[in-house]
Every structure is written in structure tokens, then in C-alpha cells.
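Study both lines:
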Amino acid sequence: MTTTDNRRFALICALGVILFFMYQAWTKDFPDVPPPATAPAKAVELESGDNDAPLAQVPDSKPTASPAEAVSKKVQVETDRLVAEISLTGGELRRLELKGYPVSKDHPERNLALLDDRDSRLFILQSGIAGSERPLVTHQSAFTAAHTRYTLVEGADALSVVLEHRDESGLSLSKTYQFKRDSYEVTLTQTLKNTSAQALIASPYVRMQRNLFVAGDEPPFVQTFKGVGLYEHKENGAGYRFRKETFEDLGDEPIEIKQTGGWISFLQHYFLAAILPAADEALSFSAKSGKNGTYIGQYVGPAATLAPGAEQTFATRLYLGPKLQNVVGAVAPGLELTVDYGILTAISEPLFWLLDLFHTWTKNWGVAIILLTLAVKAALYKLSEAQYRSMAKMKKYGPRIQEIKERFGDDRERLQKAMMDLYKKEGFNPLAGCWPILIQFPVFISLYWVLLESVELRQASFALWLMDLSAPDPYYVLPVLFGISMWAQQKLSGQAMTMDPMQQKVMNAMPVMLTAFFAFFQSGLVLYWLVSNLIGIAQQWFITRKLEREAAAPR
């Protein structure tokens, strides 16, 4: 990278960062919010009160168990992937720990809790059966369970936790959570039996309720997305689209959608909780801000009529876990879109695919990043060769360029003409050095998003002190090495002689400025650019020696 290239690179970096943050601000202030779609069949409406079950007409709904009982009476569940707590009041899923995902590098023994109800945190999953005229079985009804602890035994593929509810009005509900081995999918089955003398109209509902808190460590100086994600019908009704809104925006504009199929989710950095109804259900999704700083996202299924003595089963799938890119796409159509790389998704996805491929070979994400850098530099070798040939010519004719500058002084028109004549006569293009930088910059930004959004790289270790490639280098070693490599490239190019003293001072300060700039980036990203610089130095040395041999060869 020449001194001129370094200046271009710094300007491109500054422009790219400005445009990036302008785009983020624009999408936040002016989201694309289409009008709600209409389902072909009528669904039960969202409730007006935060603590009532969703009903077409909402009477007062009083809990059948006190909040203290809800906290004290819980069922413990453990599988190979999850540790869960289910309250016997309402059958609420109130806590869900993800095994293998520590809260932080400093506390590897503590599992991250995606759902949580401790220490002023609230993120719970509620469910029940809504009626057309009165509450049937809600997330406040009392349940019983045969055991207080359930464990997925070795050799079993699934674990079912059955909760039972009976009341004096002639209703009984069996609520079953089925957990699967090696999976973050949970199937919630609600079987309602009408033992009364009257017919009932019933609809299943599942809702998520949470306040704002940070689950696990977060990268410094970065604001990650927290909000609701929807897979909704497009405006023209042809297919679906992914839409997301921040929790803060729900206070100004609640969401209410009626459609067939799709899903609703609560998104946060690296993880999601999603309600996944059947693709052919006529349903409604809604999301809004609740009381005391909470937010609610809800699914209400199609209504069914139960004659006296009849029984109806409602099944709803859930995904509660990390946004694993090789997993979520197979769980439900469109769920892979929750891994959002922004406008550079078309570059980020192939980059991650290649990174993941290298990781399967090396079992080390740092080595995978180095191999990715080698692959990118190999793909750009011809452009780099043209760049370094141009640099060698610029270095060779540096004295003549300086002489032209001194001869024409402030006569810019004659100076430019003399320079262009020199370039044409000697057969080189000084702009050839721009292309590798311009092409690598989108790769740089795309890799930034891959390292920021891919849960696969969360807390990924490399070697020595680099124990988290998704976080900045704690000792700033990589940024300093990057600055040194940039300074070495400047010296190797030898083009400072063609610049005036002020330009030389700016270029000499550039490695220091970019070192400070990269000190706040993920160490995996700085590793990529450092290795890219080192490969560039080697390429530059090799191509320069090759050109010298070509020039010395007899003709």
C-alpha cells in the first residue's frame, strides 16, 4: 500500500464509517412499516390489559394463584442443551439457560439465561386458551405436575413435561412442553377438553413478555439490535418478508397483523425467542409496549368450536436459543433472516460460509480468519500485481515526477499534462493502486458484521492473549502491529519523495491514527487487516524484485 493509497484508504474508511452510521440512523428514524395484512379467517383479538388473556371481549381475569406461589412452585427441566424452569401458575416458562454459552469469558461456569425472571430481569413465555366470551385457561391458571424435576435421560431423544389444569366450570387443559435432544426447539401442546354442558369457542395463544436487560457480555462501543422480528405477508400478498422493529418503537406504533402462517420473535444480540405456528394457520400477531417498562409479543391461533365432551389439541413450535446459521434456516422458513448483516448481506453470507468451512478444517476461528485473508488476497492477486507494478514505476520515476512538480510550480494545467504524458510514455497508471483497496473495503465492512452478528464467533478464542475474537484486543497488541505494518508498507513503497513536506507529515501520522481507530474494533477484524498488510508487504517485495529482474534481463 503506497502513501497515496494510505491516504485514499483513510478517506475511504472515514467516508464508509460516516455512510454506515447515516444508514443506521435513517433505518431507525424512518422504518419501512407496511399496513397490516388481513387473514382469511377471523382470529381472536389481542387483549387490552397486560395481565389478561387475549379475548374478543375481555372480562376481568383474576389469577387463581398468587405471585408468591408462582415463584415458589416451579418444575425444573434439564436436557443436553437447556436448563429450564416452568411455573405451575399458568404453566409459564420463566427461565431458560443455554448450556455451552457462558455469560462471559470471566464466568465460564455460568450459563447465559435467555429467559429470566431474576435480579429485576423479566423475559418469560406465557400461554393459554382464550375464549370468545370469557377466559378459559390463562397464563394465570393453576396447574399441577407429576414431578418437580425432569431430566433427559441418556438414550432418549425427547423429554415431555406434562402440566394439568382442572376447574369447576367443566374445563380441563393438558399443557405439554416437549424438549428435544441436541435442539433448541420446544413444542408446546395444549389439549383442551370441554366437560361442560355448553359448546365453547377456543383459541390458543402464546406470548412473550420482557423488559430491557443485557443477557451476557456485549461488545464495547457498539449498540446491538433488540426488538421484535416478524415474518409477515408482503404488501402485494405474494410471499413473505422479514420485518423488525426496536422495542422503543413499539411504544409509538404497536403492531397488529392478521395473516396465514409466518412467525413472531424477540431478537437480541446473538439469540432469539421465536413462536412458530403452522404454515397454514389463520392467525394474528401483535406486539406492543406494556406496563412498567415491559414489551409484549403475541400469537393467537385460529378459533375452534368444542361441543360438550369434545377435545381439541393446539400445537405450537418454539425456538429458544442462539442464531446458529446452519440451524435456524432449517427450523422455519425465513428464520435465517434473523441473522441480519445489513446491506452487505450478499457479501457477508459467503464470507461466513468460507470462514465456517475453514473452521471445520482447523477448529480455530483465528486460523480460519487468516485462511480467509489468504483467500481474499489470492483472489485479488492480479489487481495487487497491477498495483505494485504501478508503485514500482512511481518509485522509479519519482525523481522525474519531483522535477516536473518543481518545473511547473503552481501551473496546475501544465503540471497535469506533463504528468499524464509521463504516465502514457512509461506505460503505467497511478490509479491502479485504488482498485484493491476499493474492493477490500466492502469485505472489511462485511467481515465486521460477520464478527459482530455471528454467534458462532461469540467468545471464540485464537491463541495466547486473544481469547475473544469478537471483542477488541485487551492489550492493543494487534492494533499496534497493524500500525507498524502500515508504516513498513509506506517505507517499502519509497514514494514519500514525491510528496511535499506537509503531505509527508500527514502520511507519517496515518499509521498512528489508524492504530487508534482499530483499537476499538473486534480483534478478529484487526487480525484480518494485519495479515492482509503482511501478505501485501510480501507480495510487494516479490513483485518489485521480479520487476527488477525483468528490467535487468538482456533484451
User: Anything to note?
Assistant: Residues 1-11, 17-52, 55-71 have pLDDT under 50 and may be disordered.
